[in-house]
Amino acid sequence: MSKEQVAFKGRIVKVTLDTVTLPNGKRADIEVVHHPGGAAVVALDAQQRVCLLRQYRPVFRDWIWELPAGKLDPGEGPLATAQRELIEEAGVKAARWTPLGGIMSSPGVFGEVVHLYLAQDLTAVSADTEEHELIEVHWVPLAEAIARASDGDVNDAKTLAGLFRVIGRLKQ
């Protein structure tokens, strides 16, 4: 049994102060940031290039490298989110989709699960970037993207997980 007190409710997240009973019977007070979840896409073209976005993130006051991704809208499943975000942010759609599993971005406090997908058989379409997003679309050879992730040039957790999971998937 847990007791939950809402400390903050915003447009996207809700923060609660919870009292929970752990599996060992002890009680703990925790803070939880509730998020609807998201989806991220490793879009791989016929030349084995991956779509990496260079996006300005105001939280860090910097540009970071990341996969096309976004939050789940109400009533929208993870695959539909991935498909929508790939079109909106990268200007491509995919004929073939492969799930790569989910990741928990910061499970100590953050309740978000990001669902990862591999998108292939790509076709260019018109991008529809949201007004508040500053995005540059780059197509990078997969081997170079993996090297950049290994070297620390790519620091976004969902992007790191997606790139390394796709390598494992392609070796199968």
Structural description of this entry:
This protein is α+β, with helices and mostly antiparallel strands and 172 residues long. Helix content is 22%, strand content 45%. It contains three helices and ten strands. Helix 2 crosses helix 3.
Helix share of residues? 10-25%
Q: First CA to last CA: what distance?
A: 43 Å
Molecular shape: globular
Number of strands: 10
The major pleated sheet works out as: 4 strands, mixed
Number of alpha- plus pi-helical segments = 3
Low-confidence segments: none
Q: Features of this protein?
A:
alpha+beta, four-stranded mixed β-sheet, three-stranded antiparallel β-sheet, 3 helices, 10 strands
What is this structure's SSE topology?
Blueprint: E1 3-9, E2 14-21, E3 27-34, E4 38-43, E5 49-57, E6 62-66, E7 69-71, H1 78-90, E8 92-104, E9 113-124, E10 135-141, H2 142-151, H3 157-171
Parallel strand pairs: 4-9
Antiparallel strand pairs: 1-2, 2-3, 4-7, 5-6, 5-10, 8-9
Helix pairs in contact: 2-3
Can you describe this structure in just a few lines?
The chain has 172 residues and is α+β, with helices and mostly antiparallel strands.
